[in-house]
Amino acid sequence: MAKQLAAVLGTGQTHHRAKRTDVSIPGLLREAIDRAMADAGVEWADIDAVVLGKAPDLFEGVMMPELFLADALGATGKPLLRVHTAGSVGGSTALVATSLVQSGVHRRVLTVAFEKQSESNAMWALSILPPFQMPVGAGAGGYFAPHVRSYIRRSGAPAHVGAIVAAKDRQCGALNPFAHLRQREITVESVQASQMLWDPIRYDETCPSSDGACAMVIGDEAAGEAVPGGAGWIHATAMRTEPTTFAGRDQVSPQAGRDAAAALWREAGITDPLSEVDAAEIYVPFSWFEPMWLENLGFTAEGEGWKLTESGETALGGRLPVNPSGGVLCTNPIGASGMLRFAEAAKQVMGRAGDYQVDGAGRALGHAYGGGSQYFAMWVVGAAKPG
Amino acid sequence: MNEVAVVGFAQGHNVRRSEGTTNGVEMLVPLLAEVFEQTSLSKEDIGFWCSGSSDYLAGRAFSFIAAVDALGAFPPIHESHVEMDAAWALYEAWLKIRTGEVDTALVYGFGKSSAGQLRRVLALQLDPYLVAPLWPDSISIAGIQARMGIEAGLWSEREMAEVAARSLADARENPLAQRSGAEDAATLLERPMFADPLRKHDIAPVTDGAAVLVLAAADRAAELADRPAVITGIEHRVDSPTLGARELTRSPSTEAAGAAAGGDGVQLAELHAPFTHQEIILRNALGLGENVRVNPSGGVLAGNPMFAAGLARIGEAAGQILLGNADRVLAHATSGPALQQNLVAVLEGRD
């Protein structure tokens, strides 16, 4: 039997900063939830279920925080689900909420994801020494830098491509009133002059640590039709997973990402993503992941992603604007970062992206990845109903 | 929408302490082989995978990622994870099959409670600003709940001991049980208090374990099992976390989930009650009469592998249908302090 149609009715996010000392965790979540519910034009009585996502509990030191948050989420007396799929969790959480509607179980679902990184130390939480396992001991930048070096060697990309991405995303972030880093004056040259952290990744090519949350209300066909100005219709979804390490694993372009993208484009009826997708919110925590993911997602052939970036076609106004919101390079509350990508894609097709709106965006991609580039979650949303 | 059925189930030995890594994902490997044997499916046949576990139990971030290795997840798989008991992973898999996107799903849960001090670890589920810093542990909170019921005349220490005696006696028939016994309630009541009014037999043991279950769309299920256990209702609800604001001697979330899942006429029920008095609360919340057989497996008083025990209740109940011992059963899973969050599933055999 076919899936029921589902649509984004509204989105909301917090103002993101390194330390949101003005709010507790429940207060942070409500900032995003209240905006999403107002944007969707719904009240608490309209919400049938709540789906919450975040990355490791160890970050905030609360075990299964959905339990203590039940009242703040308006979930008391309702179904409440908690998703955790590493850095892709914000995307996966949105997809579980979508399933609740697509399966015909609920009419309107509130979904929210968060991270309050200032209440923890992400570097510590990711660098513990579990027995019987090789410790990373390097944080995410140290883990991913060799993949970037490998990409550069394989593709022959010139050294300044990463700086192009960083300057572009930070300039976009300056257009986004919710972004953590808003650097209107940044240039390719200034990025290249910033300190080298994990060769070849420089300081200005890395994501910040943010406190923040993102929420969406997802509804059924009737609820979607009632959205003034048009809902963000969900055309396709995909998730894929592979193990962290094994001999022969391609960590530059993981099979799980390629498989997820292939399934996504198939379901969306898209045969040429570069021509048929109008905007993409791609999970780029280190600048070089833009060209890497452009290839992994099938926007370009292998080895060609950097050419699209270098030509300026991924900038706002280009052929495929990538991260017009500023993306993860501007704002990274880990558990919420994936949902921010999904919500920003929805905002584009709903025409609600303000100063970074892509003109006439009909179809947009939301993408998230996590773990050691092994968890992938994606969706395609459109201004028109699918089919 | 597609009906969904349980077609296979396996669980590990419930043990006080297992060898191996702190997350215990090795426990899954033989269980995966067992369900593939039962259903004649292979890894490549599974449309969707979903698991339940907890990083805090293992004391490490991203502990569920190691389970992907235990699955041998290459070529890549369609997979998700809930940081909850795997009964809720089953709920997510049930959704996925209902959408028609896949027609089979494998659900698994694993937990190695022996890696830390469970009572203290579970205190971290409480409000981190006002309550958790006081370190009220999980057994003490359950003790408050038990005391409130006794003082309200809703149950007695003897009735609690009777639950333990019956569970431990039933567990003698369960080769995977961690503990069992043949003592009657009067004998159990002579034992010393552990956390007044709870004696040790009132408290589920600390357990390492894992469980694996296979779901299929109803039309596919007929090919995979002689007598699939069709899920006719599955619902879950959560109560307020504020212990002082909750009516602790009742379980409103179980009442609401049970009513929505439609539990009338069930022959037996597997209830996830980590404390004896909680079985009494749950029976009342679900309106289970005297004729409903509760926890023939011995329940979690005989072995309570965190994050797998709720899924195992569904597996145990479904198993009674798969084996032809029952036609209509109920299964329940719980999460959080003092029965905060509850899931109810009703399953039926179709001949």
Short recap of the structure:
Chain A has 387 residues and is α/β, with parallel strands linked by helices. Chain A has helices spanning 25-40, 89-102, 122-126, 139-155, 161-173, 188-192, 221-225, 255-268, 273-276, 289-296, 305-310, 327-330, 334-350, and strands spanning 6-13, 49-53, 80-83, 108-116, 196-198, 201-202, 211-220, 232-241, 279-281, 363-370, 375-382.
Describe this structure in words.
Chain A has 387 residues and is an alpha/beta fold. Chain A contains 13 helices and eleven strands. In chain A, strand 5 and strand 6 (201-202) form a beta hairpin. The longest helix of chain A is centred in the middle third of the chain and has 17 residues, at 139-155. In chain A, 64% of the residues are buried. The mean pLDDT of chain A is 95. The mean pLDDT of chain B is 96. In chain B, helix 10 packs across helix 11. Chain B has a ten-stranded mixed beta sheet with strand order 3-2-4-7-1-8-12-11-9-10. Chain B is globular, with a radius of gyration of 19 Å. In chain B, 64% of the residues are buried. By secondary structure, chain B is an alpha/beta fold. Classes of the chains: A alpha/beta (387), B alpha/beta (351). Chains A and B meet through strand 3, helix 2, strand 8 and helix 8 of A and helix 2, helix 3, strand 3, helix 4 and strand 8 of B.
User: What number is the mean pLDDT of chain B?
Assistant: 96
Largest interface: A-B, 66 and 68 residues
- The Cα radius of gyration of chain A reads 19 Å
Q: DSSP helix count of chain A?
A: 13
Q: H/E series of chain B, N to C?
A: EHEHHEHEHHHHEEEHEHEHEHEE
Beta-strand content estimate of chain A: 15-25%
Alpha-beta classification of chain B:
alpha/beta
The chain-level mean pLDDT of chain A equals: 95
Give me the count of strands of chain A.
11
Low-confidence stretches of chain B: none
Annotation, overall tally of beta strands of chain B: 12
Helix amount of chain A = 25-40%
Shape of chain A: globular
Q: Give the radius of gyration of chain B.
A: 19 Å
Shape of chain B: globular
Order of helix and strand elements from N to C terminus of chain A:
EHEEHEHHHHEEEHEHHEHHHHEE
Oligomer: heterodimer
